[in-house]
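As promised in the previous annual report, we have extended the structural survey to additional targets. Below is the entry for tRNA-specific 2-thiouridylase MnmA.
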Amino acid sequence: MRVVAAMSGGVDSAVAASRMVEAGHEVVGVHLALSQSAATLRESARGCCTIEDAGDARRVADRLGIPFYVWDMAERFREDVVEDFVAEYEAGRTPNPCLRCNERIKFAALLDKALALGFDAVATGHYAQIVDGAQGRELHRAVDPAKDQSYVLGVLTADQLARSFFPLGDTTKPQIREEAAARGFAVAKKPDSHDICFIADGDTKGWLTRRLGEQPGPIVDTDGDVVGQHDGAFAYTVGQRRGLGLKVPREDHAKRYVVDVQPRTNTVVVGTEELLGVDVVVGDHARWCGPPPTGEASYGAQLRAHGEEVPCRASSDGETVTVRLERRVRGVAPGQSVVLYDGTRVVGSATISRAERRAQQS
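The corresponding structure token record, generated without further manual editing, is:
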């Protein structure tokens, strides 16, 4: 098969590309230029798409003896990921940009361009597994639970999975580094990138404030009494405790958390910990990794990229998903994603539109 290997300049994508070559595929390495003003050097483990990263990817491709190209997708990334991220926070939601990048860039823009150029598939360094099942290719968790990335791939459709390879899913990260060293890759000891790639210093609040400007407003308790001030409701998320700077403590001195963000009135609402627990999650923008479920069935629900899987009952009308969790979960915010699992198999995902608590536990 003719395969585009997405090469970020890190150790994972380097080994993924080498495994595709070793498997006998005709491989072309592609580095995605996603920044409109790429830095020359990586400043920390955060960030990506520096000129240094492109150089690291090119050196791996040269060592493998495969063609290498840089595809400029900075404008598409800005529109579909960065601007979406800003708009979601401005609307009082908490997005996951990695899911949007996988959905709209790596497995839409990249795959679509690869297919248009006559390639058969795309390979990436994600930690997940594709298994041939009775109804087609299935997406499964990686064998290394510490590195499993199936959650951020839960936006992929069956058609996209049919043209995707994840060569690292059966291997642990230490083994990947050992393999990279054995192959002579200089990136074998390169630190992993993490957090939000386009916010290199990790200061999401500061980054959003620079984009949206300060928008002072009240922080209120659940009775509506003002207990503090903020510089922009967009910078707060449900479940947040640190950085609130509350001026009026509770009489019982109980810790308070963000329990609601109200963008229309630019208000942040705080309350006690027990108000954070929810056991019903409703999501829209459903994406199915195979045939959509029919009726209500038992699944596992994961609500964060590295969160615990929670048993649940879930149903869908095709576009909207309702998930009833077996126990309450804290800090679930609109804009996050819920990914459903059947064992290790990823069933699909939805973007959370609201979270509620039943009056009584079943």
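Residues 40-46 have pLDDT under 50 and may be disordered. Residues 2-125+167-189 form a domain with the Rossmann fold fold (CATH 3.40.50.620). These points will be discussed at the next consortium meeting with the crystallography subgroup.
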